[in-house]
């Protein structure tokens, strides 16, 4: 194991830690998952957008904020256990799956819970 040091805006770090904590992940675990996906996918595991695309995305986020959806399932022990299992699987190359598959599985769990 090695240590990686990065310069991150203090506010951004605090916001990210809050989200990661709610998912049951540490910053180190999240970085590890990110790097494993970079290696597996051989690319950044999310879409990079231009500033115009970013503005459109901000409008979409503003809409989502003004039209909230109950995501309380994300706080359940069942969902946290699912995320923990996926995190642990990320250390076993034979169990790695794409982030798209993980998201699809998570969406399916949420949809089934709220049917």
Show the helix and strand layout:
Blueprint: H1 10-22, H2 27-41, H3 51-66, H4 77-89, H5 99-113
Q: In angstroms, what is the radius of gyration?
A: 16 Å
N-to-C order of helices and strands: HHHHH
Number of helices: 5
Largest sheet: none
C-alpha end-to-end distance: 44 Å
State the total count of DSSP E strands.
0
Structure overview:
The structure is a single chain. It is built from 5 helices and no strands. It has 115 residues and is an all-alpha fold.
How is this structure best summarized?
By secondary structure, this protein is an all-alpha fold. The chain contains five helices and no strands.
Which terms summarize this structure?
mainly alpha; 5 helices
